[in-house]
Design a protein that fits this description.
This protein is of the alpha+beta class. Helix content is about 45%, strand content about 10%. It is built from 16 helices and eleven strands. The chain has a five-stranded mixed beta sheet with strand order 2-3-9-6-4. A three-stranded mixed beta sheet has the order 1-8-7, with no helix packed on it. Strand 10 and strand 11 form a beta hairpin. Helix 4 packs antiparallel against helix 5. It is globular, with a radius of gyration of 22 Å. The chain starts with 12 loop residues before the first strand and ends in a 7-residue tail after the last strand. It binds protoporphyrin IX containing FE. The site of protoporphyrin IX containing FE has 26 residues, from helix 3, helix 10 and helix 16. Protoporphyrin IX containing FE binds next to helix 3, helix 10 and helix 16.
Length: about 475
């Protein structure tokens, strides 16, 4: 195990696979992807068919939204990191893949996620986000705790009334307010935006992501409505304007700082909106339900271990949830990483080959031509059995604990980089990396300071996992009781 970077076998070979007939092949594959096979099976079956984890395939949406659906897919832990290498790939206009949403959804600007590090604006915007997160670092823990303890109080009152509490709906409202308050000190729900922020944000997200999702409607409706043409941007103009107003007012300090970095106030504000609403809110919308589901399925034994670790560390810190206390919680951190490994919230990554390349998988070396689109389906890479062994597809809470466990962190790729590496203005790794792992841990801490154990039903939702609480057992000991 964990030897994925060593050696590669044999002389370079052409990449196996097939794109099928023009247009027809891509449409047929799109139907496999959405309806006949589903995402995981779509990729796994092609790996099996061609006997290779580096393989030529079509990716959705295909005609008529994407000019070219053909990619070279890298589907194991060894080949995937080619997508992180800025000397080898260019990441211009491909955040959402083979199509790009209209820039009229982002104020006419190509925002940071669509910029390659070679473009000067990339460094300025990314620096603005680093500065913003740094300037607010002391506010994250108290803001998280006040927002999420209120969420759990609502869970309890809904359980008392109805015997169940839908987590995702509560999480949407709470995460949206939490992010606004953590970044800018102003809860969006206390401004003109009111409680409508999450709905406006979700609508705007759908306008950008509809080519890549299925709503569970009949194929005959979804294909023309979602997967063939772009939804017209003017239909979300009002929602975007209301969101923009919040950021331009609440984000005043961040915008002042951005001007000092050489950005116009307007471009900075559209970027703040995108990083906060799409990257951060969109991320937490998927992250917390996935994490909660894995912990719920982990059962009471896991809950007891988390209770002991979390309450012990908090007691040692004088009953306070401090950064130092959270850093001591090894199992809690491992649980968050394991969830990010098993269910990476952002599953697709893309990059154009900057030059002719040789890409090594576990089984061979493959030739790729300059300009070809490389694509990674992250779950295939982070569930690679040649790295994570026989339990690669299972949730193993303590996988990353201890010296041996931490050696596996280099194969955790959720942030578009190795977990052992750091985002910078020169790469495309997520600037929210540390923030995300921190709030993931704070989420687990809040749960187990408050509860000894809980039960929940786990299902699926539009962008990921759906969780419904069915019972909680309030804490009987320690700082949370
Ligand atoms: C980029 C994941 C939260 C801001 C990315 C990328 C991934 C990712 C995979 C790379 C996309 C690509 O280029 O292919 C996530 C996940 C999150 C999360 C799963 C939460 C669970 C955040 C937060 C921020 C953020 C909290 C706030 C600053 C960004 C930005 C980029 C980015 C601005 C573009 C980076 C660049 O252009 O260099 N994120 N992210 N993300 N993320 Fe995050």
């Amino acid at each position: 195990m964990a030897s994925a970077d060593q050696g590669s076998s044999g002389a370079p070979k052409p990449v196996p696979g097939s794109y099928g007939l023009p247009v027809i092949g891509a449409v047929r594959d799109r139907l496999d992807f959405y309806y006949f096979q589903g995402q995981d099976k779509y990729f796994e079956s092609r790996v099996e068919r061609y006997g290779s984890t580096v393989v030529r395939i079509n990716v959705p949406p295909g005609p008529f939204m994407a000019k070219d659906p053909r990619v070279v897919a890298v589907l194991d832990a060894k080949s995937f990191p080619v997508l992180f290498d800025m000397d080898k790939v260019e990441k211009k206009n491909l955040f959402t893949g083979t199509y790009m949403p209209s820039t009229s959804l982002t104020g006419g600007y190509r925002v940071c996620s669509y910029l390659d590090p070679s473009e000067p604006t990339h460094a300025k915007v990314k620096q603005m986000l680093f500065n913003l997160l740094l300037s607010r670092k002391d506010d994250v823990i108290p803001t998280f705790r006040s927002n999420f303890s209120a969420l759990l109080a609502t869970v309890e009152s809904e359980l008392a009334k109805a015997g169940k509490a839908e987590f995702n709906k509560l999480n949407d409202a709470t995460s949206f307010d939490f992010i606004g308050e953590a970044y800018f000190g102003v809860r969006p729900s206390s401004t003109d935006l009111g409680t409508g922020g999450p709905t406006k944000a979700a609508k705007w997200l759908i306008w950008q992501l509809h080519p890549l999702v299925t709503l569970g409607l009949p194929m005959i409706l979804e294909e023309p409505l979602l997967h063939t043409f772009h939804l017209p941007p003017f239909l979300v103009k009002g929602d975007y304007k209301a969101l923009y107003k919040y950021y331009s007012t609440a984000g005043k300090q961040a915008l002042d700082m951005a001007e000092g970095l050489g950005l116009s106030r307007e471009e900075a504000c559209h970027n703040l909106l995108f990083a906060t609403t799409f990257n951060s809110y969109g991320g937490l919308k998927v992250l917390f339900p996935g994490l909660l589901a894995n912990i719920a399925n982990g059962g009471e034994k896991l809950h007891q271990k988390l209770v002991a670790e979390i309450r012990g560390a908090v007691a040692e810190a004088g009953g306070k949830v401090t950064l130092g206390a959270v850093e001591k919680m090894e199992l809690t951190k491992s649980v968050v990483w394991e969830s990010l490994r098993l269910d990476p919230p952002v599953k697709f990554q893309y990059g154009h080959a900057k030059k002719d390349l040789e890409i090594a998988s576990h089984d061979g070396v493959f030739q790729v031509k300059k300009g070809e689109m490389l694509f990674g389906y992250q779950p295939c890479a982070t569930k690679d059995p040649r790295v994570f062994g026989a339990t690669a597809r299972e949730f193993v809470p303590d996988r990353f604990v201890g010296e041996e466990g931490s050696k596996l962190l280099q194969y955790v790729y959720w942030s578009n980089g190795r977990e052992t590496e750091s985002p910078s203005v020169g790469n495309k790794q997520c600037p929210g990396k540390n923030f995300v792992v921190l709030v993931g841990r704070l989420f687990v801490v809040e749960l187990f300071l408050r509860y000894d154990t809980f039960t929940a039903n786990v299902g699926t939702e539009l962008l990921g996992t759906g969780v419904v609480f069915t019972g909680v057992t309030k804490a009987t000991s320690g700082p949370g009781s």
